[in-house]
């Protein structure tokens, strides 16, 4: 619930004054106040009634549904407010609560004086006695309060002995030991005593005959003392427990309170009236010696000790008045004019009774007895209306309205009094049925809803009516604000009195989102009416009518209501007036304070603070250390936001400039620029500047250093353009004069310097231009000093599969420097200083003094060097700064850390592109980051190379060895990284690879030559020789391979000092490079002129093979025609000396041939035949960038051609892999090399000769009885084994053996084809009467599995002698399809891909295949 003094139910609250006592810290006191504030609403049902019979007038048992609302304050109300009592009884504190810290009781004695009750055994008991003495002092100094208490928070009883707790002192355990009802019990006990003591106050009011309206006293003796009771007159207390026989009250508004009592929120010091002043606790009875009931005052004069209540009455002497004081004789006379009913005295007495009834009703309202309050208020208001007592009539109606709201909030049924209705309608027709009926709304709330708007208007009219008595302006203005707040809540709820409206009216909390400017014409009361009524509370310009504090409170209340209604512009006007009032008040207080301490008022910002010992600029107003930050700062911030001032981001700058604020990140800066850009398009610029100037004057008058710095920088920011200008595009000049810019900058600089000198911390402003840094670039290193990045995988030993070149030559060679290509990521060297260029803009017309600027980086450790400079007015300037990376790693320059004189050191991101806000406030791309990757620490030294030692000219495919000398001239050991090579053949090959028209076979050849046949490579030696000690020389050997087109080459050496073992290197390392150029001459050696492959027909004797030079490297085995074929090659010697060529086939056969210079020799050589499981597989890519799952030729060829090309490629590869050809010279310089065989191309006939069929077919003839004929059979199926001898009419078996060499099953159909040998085709097939067989020659066999063998036997007999030959063929019955993936997909597995469909589209659909036997089975039939 809000504790605002302007809430609608403020008259129903009981004000309680909270004071610190003893040793207590500010934050502890604030936390204890917060614990009490959580229980500021006390239900009557929870309060125990007082047991004394004369204290039960306000017993909580009479109305348990009620509640007491406490207004907990920590300062004494001003005299202007206390003077309004008893008209506004809620303004006077009725409860005094002194708060002590229980943790301070055990530390040291709070007072060194000895108590009259004897010496306390412990420090805790001594301090508790001291607190009781302070309680007595509070009763003496605040005697008008009804209840006094001391609360000891966080009190833990000592375990050794029990400490007695005096009456009036209550202990509260710490939070962790407290129960949920602990604080509620404390507040209930305080409320119980308060209700009991209110009885005496009420009876004192009932004894009065006349109560004056504030400011219109007819008795000059009334209210001549302040609210705090003078110690010299202790009999003036109002507490019934310790009251004197008479009651003295005050009604004068001219009393001046002690300055030390005007602020009670500070801890106790020696000068405070409730401190240690020598008073000792005395034994006081729990009940008074002489009760007020034993001798109650009979009239107003006896109750207040003043003069006569009216000119006709005389004063009676009081028992407490000294005898030597006599009343004037004129007061002993009594006028007799106007006696009797209807006379002047009777009217005077009735008016006093009516006012007393209203006061009693207000006390019932504060005590939570709302039903009794309604009864007395209706009675007193009726009397006031009959006597035309307009102010008290309005007071009664106001209190009745509050009472009805509280009853509705508590859910208690009530009847709206007739006096509250317009024109006093009769009860029969006083309420008409409303137009918009709320479902489930009680009838009494519906009646209140109809009467409330007119009732509020009537109250304001009565207060403002011109009569003999006028209400003081502060009370009138606050009442109008409270009623307008109630009307605002009714307007927000659309004129309906429901639960939401009652919560707003009772708690004073309105929705966070104010109303919009859209009209709400159907809602009563309307917003325009509320605003018109609200401005009746606007204070007059006469300074003598209101104090500065009262005027500020009234203007704040008006601004709050206007803000809730959505009138932001009217609210801003009121707040601006409030600032003017505060400035004048601050200047007046500053002048008065300077006069008191004896210094000149114009001594500067810190004159009063230096004398008072305060360093935050709050001495002139006696403010606490946190009051400026918690109240004034937020108030001025609200004013600036209302007018659309372009502020920083609403947050206070950090007090320490060493730690960067979390709001300096890129996202936070971009969001701040967006908000600032939106604020620039809101409101009028000149009005914003005037508001900021007023805020600066206000902060200087406090004085508030933070405010001066903040609003000065906001003024510069608001006056600026807020753009990042480009070349000759945007106008970035500010809208204020140059002299004012210079004055603001100097003011910021001087204020920051002054705060540092005074020891207030490094107070600083926020810089006013977010686009300070426009660009950051890195000065590049010389080409010879620039390091190059490499991946860890290129280091020797990092990859298991390596070539002699140490790196993969495809895609990108990490050690080859690309020609004329700028590096995207700039690289610097660890341990070496790098130079950066920072572009800084200054769009203002004064010099910008930069005290410190350095780079802000992320990633690896970096030590920036701070620089200072002065940027001229309205220009962009480039500044060179340096920095040194301390370790290897990725380094990102994200901005710069800049400290402008007088401003906070903060980080500025990079805004490279020009930017200006559109009219629709569209924020374009922000931010620019410079990535700077650095190399390994101390990894870049220097190496010198000597000229290489080479041989003579090279032949093609010849290898030679040369060396070079490397010397390290660096202080650190240099480890040369993997060597890189370039030669003249790489360019044409890479160009050919990029050709889109090249076939896959051609691309494979290009990539193979590029990857496997490097022209330059390092010899395989110990890897430890790569490292060169400092200052030493090491020799490295390289091999060079002669290739066609090789004319030049380059050896590139990357060297670095890694600093760590190779295993500990992260993703990248960096090196520097040196290059060595070579000139190479390559001549032709042995060329392959022609090639042919033929099948072997029949058996070839071994001597014949030896005669042609074929040597068997293994055991002598016959050369089977089914396993071997003949390779015929024509080789030409292009070298000018004799050549010896050696060919080897599958490590089984070898042949050597001598070729004269310029001659061509033919070589016939047996090579093994080749079987391929899948001859139509796609041609692979050695280049990783071209590796795909499926590769198809880019040319538009038929599937048959594609199959033929792939078949030729794979058989050629198999043949080349099985051959090894080398050459060497027999005369002249010794040379040796390899014969290039990749120039061979296979025709379909040659492929048919070299390949082995997928299905093997073997035919043989076996006799049924072994004795009838002779047969020679062999399982190897050689031609000699296929000659069979049988007799005429003998029964034999034709055995057909099938072997499936593939990985897939087949469905075979076998055909046996007998024929007559040595006959033409038309005659050979005429054998039906010469050869008989049993069954059919064509049979369909079952599924033949992968790598399976099956046999077929057919019975036959020869009917005549002669030579017969048997052939066989196998045809697929149907194509076998693998149904496994389909079944798996049907069973819930992964859906089968369309791989087979794609293959069929590329290579054509699979067709049935046919295989024929390669050899005939000859059968000789004899008689």
TrEMBL record:
Coiled-coil ranges from the UniProt annotation: none
Pfam families per record: Ig_TRAPPC9-Trs120_1st, Ig_TRAPPC9-Trs120_2nd, Ig_TRAPPC9-Trs120_3rd, Ig_TRAPPC9-Trs120_4th, TPR_TRAPPC9-Trs120, TRAPPC9-Trs120
Region (Disordered): 212-347
Trs120/TRAPPC9 third Ig-like domain mapped to chain residues: 1086-1250
Localization, UniProt: Golgi apparatus
Domain Trs120/TRAPPC9 N-terminal: 6-420
InterPro entries for this protein: Ig_TRAPPC9_Trs120_1st (IPR058565), Ig_TRAPPC9_Trs120_3rd (IPR058567), Ig_TRAPPC9_Trs120_4th (IPR058568), TPR_TRAPPC9_Trs120 (IPR058564), Trs120_TRAPPC9 (IPR013935), Trs120_TRAPPC9_N (IPR058563)
Keyword set includes Amino-acid biosynthesis: no
Keywords: Golgi apparatus
Domain Trs120/TRAPPC9 fourth Ig-like positions: 1272-1422
Domain (Trs120/TRAPPC9 first Ig-like) ranges: 773-929
Stretches assigned to the Trs120/TRAPPC9 TPR region domain: 448-759
Main location group: Golgi
Entries under PANTHER family matching the protein: TRAFFICKING PROTEIN PARTICLE COMPLEX SUBUNIT 9 (PTHR21512)
Protein name in UniProt: Hypercellular protein HypA
Organism name: Apiospora hydei
